[in-house]
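Hi there. Long-time user, first ticket. I'm pasting a complex I've been working with (about 396 residues overall). I'd like to know whether the download I got is complete or cut off, because the file seemed smaller than I expected. Thanks.
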Amino acid sequence: MFSPLVAELIQGLRVLPGVGPKSAQRMALYLLERNRQGAQQLADVLARAMLDVQHCESCRTFSEQSLCQLCASTARDTQLLCVVESPADILAIEQSGSFNGLYFVLGGHLSPIDGIGPHELGIPQLINRLKNKEVTELILATNATVEGEATAHYIRESSKVFGVKVSRIAHGVPLGGELETVDSHTLARALNQRQRYA
Amino acid sequence: MFSPLVAELIQGLRVLPGVGPKSAQRMALYLLERNRQGAQQLADVLARAMLDVQHCESCRTFSEQSLCQLCASTARDTQLLCVVESPADILAIEQSGSFNGLYFVLGGHLSPIDGIGPHELGIPQLINRLKNKEVTELILATNATVEGEATAHYIRESSKVFGVKVSRIAHGVPLGGELETVDSHTLARALNQRQRYA
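Hi, the file is complete. Here it is re-exported in full:
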């Protein structure tokens, strides 16, 4: 019982992840009632971003420039290269404030069943980058999932011939985590990879 | 660590109700990675809807036509007028399949503290409509909240002079509801307004 254009708007909002029919309806009515200007601005930035945002030629993160800000920066340590699954992971690591190297974004993990192999993840481009010997350490920061581990393993094997140091981020009990709330796989890993006091 | 345009897109998505920084980031990356075409269509319909969707001249619901589909229909009983708070309520009542009259959308409820009085809710327009005596019954279907009750009460008082029959939708135990899970106010109402078997 919504007008055709309102119904089309509700349907259009359902492209957003996690937005079902009820949420889309609530969003459409909210925007029409309360924030038409904000919605106009959203329409404008959506159109521009979908047109202009491409991948950084160097690290494959999203960027409207051919080189992203980090890759174009002269303040970063170009000997360290950290491999992540998603652009969101770059944000998380940058916010930790403990990494000053460059990144490489896979854009996912190996998933043969979905047709996602090394080529789709840009792994040939990554390997190519190791050839000029500028990178001395490759840090694998894919997710701590089965797929993330498999992807890290694949990259580790592929990069062996270049003599580059390859490392994996540490896994274990999160800071502030209480032991009784940590799952047993994580606890097993934390015990196996215990660090001896210096 | 997102490029300026991606950051602008994330910010733009936050105009949507219930979308915080994390959800906006997830939506932006999802659209860029997976569904640029859908996002372009969303941008297009957002822009058109914000520009073209206005209020139906007769019932005040959202419509890009001067008269909405229901008000323009010749199949509806023009003697029954149902007053609701929001266009979403029309959808809910239509889906119940038990009303064939016309609607009037207040677009909220009386809330003096927010500066929402009878004028903002179009109550003068509603009262005006009672003058030509076409409407024989006014059904008040505002929400079963304190504000919805107050708004219904105000409209009931304002329409007394026109001799129109005024009714309020029934409140009580919802169908399928178990008594022990129903709140005590609703139970009290259900007891007070018990219906005698014919």
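A couple of notes from our side: Chain B has a mean pLDDT of 93. The domain at 4-52 of chain B is CATH 1.10.8.420 (Helicase, Ruva Protein; domain 3).
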